[in-house]
Amino acid sequence: MKVAASSSGTNLDSQIDPRFGRCAYFIIVNTDDMSFEVFDNEAIALGGGAGIQSSQFVVSKGAEAIITGNVGPNAVHTLSAAGIEMFMGQTGSVREAVERYRKGDIKPKGSPNVDNHYGMGGETSGITPGMGMGRGMGKGMGRGMGRGMGRCMASGMGASGPIPPDSSKTASLSREEELKQLKDQANDLLDQMQTLQARIKDLEKK
């Protein structure tokens, strides 16, 4: 079978790239004989939607699993809908990670371990303080920009709506910085809508 690994280099001895959506390369490995193909990640420079595009690329190459460091919410939704297993938190070389996978030493996860836009710079690994998991009849994803900018995409009963910007904090931002943040938020919202619509269509077919 084929597994995809996010890689910082172009061979099996390259280190696992901790970024899934914005990794440098994808290495598609055939676990039967360890033969592999290397692809540049064309989504690395995207302002938004990198996780979704990378997920679609992995699916298009016939991979049944992804071995990587960190995966955000949008990518998790897309990969899950396609039935791709996600092995997160992996380090070391691609060869070592694939060997752990072949031996069954690592287990798949079904939830994101970083926020959207991880890997664009300025983020720290792990779920950011501004991200909340809403509860009720549904599950919500909230994201704080760390500078008073925030949003909350949630569905189901008990879900809250978008969080308005804190004017006392955004006042110190330049026009360009605030504009960039708003564009990033808009891209996030579009990504969420695309993911939700794809999931709805997938469920309607079943």
Characterise this structure.
The protein has 206 residues and is an alpha/beta fold. The chain folds into two domains: 2-103, Dinitrogenase iron-molybdenum cofactor biosynthesis domain (Nucleotidyltransferase, domain 5); 132-205, no CATH class. Helix content is 32%, strand content 17%. It contains five helices and eight strands; from the N terminus they run E-E-E-H-E-H-E-H-E-E-E-H-H. The strands form two sheets. A five-stranded mixed beta sheet has the order 3-2-1-4-5, with helices on both faces. A hairpin with a 4-residue loop joins strand 2 and strand 3. Helix 1 packs parallel to helix 2 (73-81) and helix 2 (73-81) runs parallel beside helix 5 (175-205). The chain is globular, with a radius of gyration of 18 Å.
In summary, what is this structure?
The protein has 206 residues and is of the alpha/beta class.
Overall 3D shape = globular
Whole-number mean pLDDT = 76
Distance between the termini: 25 Å
CATH class label of the largest domain:
Alpha Beta
Structural class of the secondary structure composition?
alpha/beta
CA-based gyration radius: 18 Å
So how many helices? Answer: 5
- How does CATH name the architecture of the largest domain? 2-Layer Sandwich
- CATH superfamily name of the largest domain? Dinitrogenase iron-molybdenum cofactor biosynthesis domain
User: Runs with pLDDT <50, length 5+?
Assistant: 122-171
* Portion in beta strands: 15-25%
Give me the strand/helix succession: EEEHEHEHEEEHH
- What count of structural domains? 2
Percent helix, as a range, is 25-40%
Q: Could you give the order of strands across the largest sheet? A: 3-2-1-4-5
Return the CATH topology of the largest domain.
Nucleotidyltransferase, domain 5
Largest sheet: number of strands, sense, barrel closure: 5 strands, mixed
How many E strands?
Answer: 8
